[in-house]
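Q: I have two molecules that I believe assemble together. Could you output C-alpha cells for the complex as a whole instead of separate predictions?
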Amino acid sequence: MANFSKSNAPQFSMDVYQNEYLPEGGREVNAIVTVTSTGGGTIGSAVAAPHLWSAEQGPSAAVALMVDCSGSMDYPPTKMRNARDATAAAIDTLRDGVHFAVIGGTHVAKEVYPGNGRLAVADATTRDQAKQALRKLSAGGGTAIGTWLRLADRLLSSAEVAIRHGILLTDGRNEHESPEDLKASLDACAGRFTCDARGVGTDWEVKEVTGIASALLGTSDIVADPAGLAADFTQMMEAAMGKEVADVALRVWTPVGTTIKFVKQVAPTVEELTGRRTEAGPRAGDYPTGSWGDESRDYHVCVEVPVANIGQEMLAARVSLVVPQPDGSTQNLGAQGLVRAVWTDDMVASTSINPQVAHYTGQAELAQAIQQGLDLRKAGDIDGATAKLGRAVQLANNSGNADTAKLLSKVVDVVDATTGTVRLKAKVEEADEMTLETRSTKTVRVKK
Amino acid sequence: MSQMPQLSACPSCEWPLESGDRFCGACGYDLSAVPARPDDSPTIAMNGAPPGGPWPEVPHPPAEVHLPADLQGTESGEHALPPSGPVVGSPVSPVSGVRFDRSPEPDEYVLQAPDPRVAAGPPTPAEGTKVCVACRAGRVDDDGYCENCGHAQPRERDHMEQEAGPIAAVSDRGLRHHRNEDAFTLGTSVLPDGSPATFAVVCDGVSSATRPDDASLAASRAAADALLAALPQGTHPQQAMHEAIVSASRAVNSLAAEPATAREHQPHQNAPACTIVGSIVTPSLLVVGWVGDSRVYWVPTDRSSPPARLTEDDSWAAQMVAAGLMNEAEAYADERAHAITGWLGADAYELDPHTASFKPDRPGVVVVCTDGLWNYAEAADEMAEAVPADAAARPLHTARVLVGHALDGGGHDNVTVAVVPFPTPPQGAGSA
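A: Yes, here they are, computed for all two components at once.
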C-alpha cells in the first residue's frame, strides 16, 4: 500500500459554501463542498519536471492501455496509424518504475505487451519494446469492450501498487457483447481501477464511452480527428502520472431523521454519485471519487432535515474524505466540512441563495438540458429540442460557460443568448453534435 | 444671588470647582442656584450637560437626553416639578416635601416566575459524558453537535450569569435566535478617595453584520478594561465612560481586519458591529453612556417615586420622534423602528458616544439592558413593574426575573440585563 506519511503525499482541504439559514418549516439544506488537494506532485509534471518523479519518489502505479483494433479502425487507415502513434506517445510519458501493459481490443482482448499475464516495469528498454510491439497491431474483428476491461483488471491487480489506471480508446459501438455484459464488466471493475475513455472518429456511441468513464471515475472525450490522438494521450497519461492517492471516498454523515436527496460532483464535470453510496457505519455513507493528484473538485450535497423550531441549529451533514483499507478500516485524510441548518425568522437571511449553490444548480441543469435537447432532436421533436437547447444556451451564457456555449452554437443558431432564443441548425456536423453531447457535463466554476 | 455657596465640586456632575465660579466649567450648571444642601433631603439633579459646556477631553459634549420633567421629583430648588402626566392623588412626603406622582399602592407586585431553566441552577453541563440535550441519546462530538440527531448543543454564551459584589447580570439566547450575540461585563473599582465604584457594560451584536457575537464580546471587554484603568486614577466617571466607549469602538473596528473563520461563509460579509450601553455608580453619581439602542432604566426602590429611562436610542424611531415627524406610537409601529442609526464597528459613519450624569436623590436600581428586554417593557413604568421590589438587595435574582419576563413575552431576541443598585450597598451586604 502507499505510505501516505511520505512528505509528497497531498494535503486535502475542504470548504463548505452554503446558506445555512432556513425559514420556519424549511427542510432542504444545500451546500457546495470544495475539495482541494495540494502539496503533492503537479499534474503534467511527469515530463516537464522529471526530477520530481524519480522511481523512488512517485507513488507506485500501474497503467493499462486498451487500444481498439476492430476492423473499422482501418477506415480510414490513418486511424490505426494515429492510434499506434498516440499509444507510443502515452508510453513515452510513463515515468520510470510504473507498471504497464498494452491491450489490443476486438471482440476479444489480446495482450500486446508484455504478454503472459504480466505487467512490464517502465524503463528505456521496456518502453522501446512496447513501441516495437505496437507495430504488430492490425485491424480486424469486432468490439466487446467488456472483455478489454476484464483483462485490464486482471493485469492491473497482479501488481502491488497504489494507483491503478486504464486508458481506453474505441472507434465503434460495442456490438459484440450485450449492454448487460458491458454493465456487468463495469460493475466488476468499479473501484478496482480508474479509467479514462476516448472515442475516436464519429462512429462510436457517446453514452457508452461516457458511461465507461463515469463508472470507472475517469474522464471521457471525443477525438474526432485521429490526428489529435497523440496529444490527447500524452495529456491523459500526464494526468494519470500526477495521481497520488487512489480510492478516495467522500464520506457523508447525516443525523437521525435526515435523508440525503443527492450527492453529485459538479466540477470539473457533473457526475451523479447518489446511487453509488456504500454504507460506512451508522448514518454514514461513502461516495467514490477515484484517485487524486493536485486538483480541486466541487460536490453538491443536498439533504432533507427534520423541521425544527426557529432559533434551533443542527448539523445537517458532516463531510470528510477517507480511503477505505483492504482490512475494512479506513484512513481519514483529515479534511472535514460541516453542513449546518439554522432556522430563523429573518426572511432576508433564509431566502437568499448561496451563489455557489445557485451556480452549480444552473450547471447541472445545463448538462441536463443539452442531453435532453439532443435526445429530442434525434427523436425528431424539433420544438422540444429547440426549447431545451435554447435553455442550455441561456444557462451557458449566464454562467460564463464559454466552452459549452461555443459547442452549442455549432448545433443551434443563437438568436438571443440572454433569453435563450435559438433555431436548430438544418445541417449539423456529426462530430459537433457528439462533441457537445460528450462534453455537456463539463462545468465552469463560479465567476469571481 | 449675593451669597455664593462655597462648593468644592459641581452639584450636578462633581466637576472640581474653583472659588468664584458662577457656572460649572464642565456642565454649565448654574452654581448661583445651589441652595445650602439640606442634610435630610439631597437634591435630584437630572441634567446632562447643556451644549457649550465641554469636558476638556470630550470632543462632543454629552447630549442632553431628556428634560427634567421626564423624571418627576424635585428640582434642585426643592420646588415640585410640574407633573407630565395625569396626577392621581399625589401625597406629599412629610419628610422631604417631595411630591410623588403615584397613587399609594400596596407594596406588592406581581412578579414573573423565574425562568425554570434559571431556577434549576447554573446550566453548566455535567463533565465527562456529554449527552445530547435534544434527543438525550447521542454523544456530543468535538464540534458541539449531537452524533445522533445533529442538534447543536447549548454553548457557553447561550445563558450566562454573573454576580460581582453588589451587582449582577444575566444574558440569555432567547427563544428565537440560534446563538447569543449579546455580551456583558461587570466590574468594581475604587476611586482615588477610597469610595467604591461599580459598573456594568452591555453590548448587543448587530445580527445583520458578520460575527456579531465577537463584536459584542470585544466591545464589552474593552470598555471594562478602560473603566478599570481610568476610574482608580481619578478620571471623572463621565469622561471615563466616554473613553471606554471609544476604546470599545476601536476593539470592534479591529475585528473587521481579521479574517472570518473558515466555518463562517456568510452570503454577505460586512464589518462586525454592536451596540454598547454602560453605567457607572459612585457614591454620589450615576453615569450612563451608550451608542445604539441598548438602554438604561432607573427604578427607585420606593415605587411611589417615578422610574425613568436614562438613554435615548440611536434608532430610526427615536430620530423620527426627535425630529417631530412622527409621534412615538406611530414611530415604534413602523417596521423600521428598530433600525439603529448609531453603532460600534468599522462601518459606522461617525462615532458619537452619548454620556450623561445623574444624581439620584433616593436609592434604587439601574437596569442596563438590550432591546431583548425592553421590547417587552418599553416604558419606564412597565420596566419598573417587572423589577422586583427587593431588586437592590437581590440583583442576580432581579436580573433572572427580568430575563424571564422577556422569555415569557416571546424571547424574540437575545436578552441581557445588568442590575446595579444605587447607592452601592456596603460590601458584605450583597444579595441574600
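A: One point stands out. Helices of chain B lie at 116-119, 212-230, 237-255, 316-322, 328-333, 371-374, 380-386, 395-408.
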